[in-house]
Amino acid sequence: MAQKDNQESSCKETTLNTKVNETARAYDVVVVGCGVAGLSAAVAAAEAGGRVCVLERAPLEERGGNTRYTGAYLRMKSVTEVTDDFEEHFAANSGGYMDPTLVGDLALDPATWSPTLRAYSFTDPNVVSTLAERAPDTLAWISGFGVKFIPLDVPFPTSSQPRIVPSGGGLALIDALAAQFEKLGGTIFYRTAAQSLVTDDEGRIQGVAAVVEPHRRVTFRAPSVVLASGGFQGNAEMMTRYVGPRSIYLRGMSLGCNFNKGEGIRMALDIGAAPCGDFGSFHASPMDPRSNRAGPSMYVYPYGILVNEQGRRFVDEGPGHTDETYEDVTRNISAQPHGIAYCILDARSDDLPNLAVAVRTEQPAVTAATIAELAAKLGLPADVLEATVAAYNAACRPGNFNPRDTDGLATVGLTPPKSNWSRPLDKGPYKAYPIISSIVFTFGGLKVNARAQVLNQEGDAIPGLYAAGETQGLYYGSYTGATSVLKGAVFGRIAGTDAVSRRQR
């Protein structure tokens, strides 16, 4: 049956691609990317009566990029209300030390902003407020295609803010939106990779030049293009150029990362688009490098200690609620030799009530009767690891251990300290998990306004060009958790609606 399905899928893709030359000349909107952002744009444009196509690098059975594999957490209290700290968290992570002469102008009407401010690389508060305001009606819109959103009771071992999720995760979003798009008469071209933007002599968008297997060049003509092809975590050259040579130690959180080559960002920068977002950083999440599954996140480290290849601690394992601190801890892991650390636990961890949330790998822990034996199995210096555990144990103090909330059970006189969940590791057998930093998506992307229009270096909208999802730059420093899928859906829908309206201009 699987073989038959694959044959039918291959047949369908072949049929689509052989028709490219016949059908690629008269679209109203071309969307690059088939994740939640791209499909939201495609459906919105098709609903408005536009002739729309989607270009997807992946084959049909792997369509959807990162969205396909994500749980699609949404930073909302319910389908009608975002979390209390939504805009506040974005504001706290909006860029570097912004020029104070520009900060004062943010209170003015964006239409009066100077070109410098419009093109400035920072998190535009108007874009964030649009995201917060449009989130509820966007989820209601998606609900109309059969997707149900439910509360996520225990998203992390400890959480400071609530989350909701689509039942069925990101794949449910992809399936529902793709079905609706095809129902509206839209076309998805699989195994089709965008390469460059086509513009006229005045710089207006005229379409996309792409490559269809086997390296056959095709031009898809349209007055509007929506770039929704993700970030560049699947491009080793861009990762090294922007994130640095240590990016070799990062692994994609899902197979969908491999399809995100950064061409959407590159082709827009090539025609003068303004960058936005932290190009040297990314959304980091702790993972088990041995795992074969998508999303093998490891949040158990607050209940033990983290050591590097030298057998030494290097970070506060329990600085606060897991959902708001795991990224900083993970970045510290990625900075260690070979980008790896080991979470050391004892038998008490078996009784954690939230163990299923804390350990998401299918691989077993490395176990041993003694710390010295555990060190040998991990390839760590036994004398150093024994000294590290002994120093940690001596710094622990009696108190009430609460695995479901920050408990203030901190070490005393230990460097670096551990601020919560500090219990001695003295009850065998002992166990350990290797942990590395995964890359979920990159932060650097394109500057857009609240209409999802891509801006040029002069702060003006590039006629006919839009961006959504991770192609749209927005994040700096610390990721505002559970907003990436939401951002893709909201601005994808905005982009598609605005893009198709250009038919009449």
Characteristics of this structure?
disordered N terminus, alpha/beta, 6-stranded mixed sheet, 19% strand, FAD/NAD(P)-binding domain, Flavocytochrome C3, Chain A, domain 1, 505 residues, 32% helix
Give a summary of the structure in a few sentences.
By secondary structure, the chain is α/β, with parallel strands linked by helices.
Please describe what this structure looks like.
This protein is 32% helix and 19% strand. It is α/β, with parallel strands linked by helices and 505 residues long.
State the end-to-end CA separation.
Answer: 50 Å
Q: At CATH's second level, what is the architecture of the largest domain? A: 3-Layer(bba) Sandwich
Tell me the β content. Answer: 15-25%
The domain count comes to 2
Give the overall pLDDT as a whole number.
93
CATH topology of the largest domain: FAD/NAD(P)-binding domain
CATH classification class of the largest domain: Alpha Beta
Question: What overall geometry do the principal axes of the alpha carbons give?
Answer: elongated
Helical content band: 25-40%
Q: Any idea what the CATH superfamily of the largest domain is called?
A: FAD/NAD(P)-binding domain
Chain-wise SSE layout:
Blueprint: H1 2-18, H2 20-23, E1 29-32, H3 36-47, E2 52-55, H4 65-69, E3 76-78, E4 81-82, H5 86-92, H6 100-103, H7 115-119, H8 125-143, E5 149-152, E6 163-166, H9 169-183, E7 187-189, E8 192-199, E9 205-212, E10 216-221, E11 224-227, H10 236-243, E12 251-252, H11 263-270, E13 275-276, E14 282-287, E15 305-307, H12 322-334, E16 340-345, H13 355-358, E17 366-368, H14 371-378, H15 382-395, E18 430-442, E19 445-446, E20 453-455, E21 461-467, H16 484-500
Parallel strand pairs: 1-2, 1-11, 2-7, 11-21, 12-18
Antiparallel strand pairs: 3-4, 5-6, 8-9, 9-10, 13-19, 14-18, 15-16, 16-18, 17-18, 20-21
Helix pairs in contact: 3-9, 3-16, 5-8, 8-16, 14-15
